[in-house]
């Protein structure tokens, strides 16, 4: 698996757990407000990646100290060997959280069927009629809708999240997004971090103060 970064210790990325955060390299979205632009490219030099075996040696050395592993990105579900990585992480005794943009419902379905995830957080970027604008690419709306349905019905802990980028999302848009969240599921609003936005024009924007 292509690993572009590692946060060795986090108390905030996996609620109630001490976790390591693994950043996968490569994303199929081009969100203009993305603050992890260095993780978007799929093809990068090998020497810029963290070898998988090196990562697992680190995790093994933290057995008993870390509770979980968070897979984020980039977009983890475009990694062809994601299942093997998650299986190995769980075999080591770690709880697994997956952060996803929801663009690969067929991957999510397989991971859920194989019981390889303990917590899922999915970003709902925008109302479905303007999704292309907030993701920077065209994807079938049906994929996001299917992922929302799969996650809500999965029976495992989950949340849906939206980053409130004020120049791109109006208060009415945020209300429309909330209507996409199934009853019984949590929806969290995230603060927009403007300083490293992929689109340079957004770096001049004042950070949103929106909260939960």
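^ Assign residues to that structure.
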């Amino acid at each position: 698996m292509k690993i572009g970064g590692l946060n060795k210790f986090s108390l905030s990325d996996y609620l109630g757990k001490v976790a390591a955060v693994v950043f996968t390299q490569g994303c199929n979205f081009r969100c203009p407000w993305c603050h992890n632009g260095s993780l978007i490219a799929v093809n990068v030099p090998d020497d810029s990646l963290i070898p998988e075996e090196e990562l697992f040696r680190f995790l093994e050395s933290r057995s008993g100290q870390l509770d979980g592993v968070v897979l984020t990105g980039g977009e983890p579900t475009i990694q062809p060997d994601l299942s093997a990585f998650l299986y190995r992480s769980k075999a080591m005794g770690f709880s697994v959280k997956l952060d996803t943009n929801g663009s690969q419902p067929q991957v999510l379905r397989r991971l859920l069927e194989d019981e390889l995830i303990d917590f899922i957080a999915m970003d709902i970027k925008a109302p479905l009629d303007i999704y292309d604008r907030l993701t920077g690419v065209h994807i079938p709306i049906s994929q996001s809708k299917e992922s929302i349905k799969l996650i809500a019905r999965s029976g495992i802990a989950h949340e849906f999240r939206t980053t409130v980028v004020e120049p791109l999302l109006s208060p009415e848009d945020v209300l429309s997004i909330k209507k996409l969240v199934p009853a019984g599921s949590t929806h969290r609003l995230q603060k927009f971090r403007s300083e490293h936005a992929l689109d340079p024009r957004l770096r001049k924007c004042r950070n949103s103060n929106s909260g939960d």
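The CA atoms of residues 54 and 60 lie 10 Å apart.
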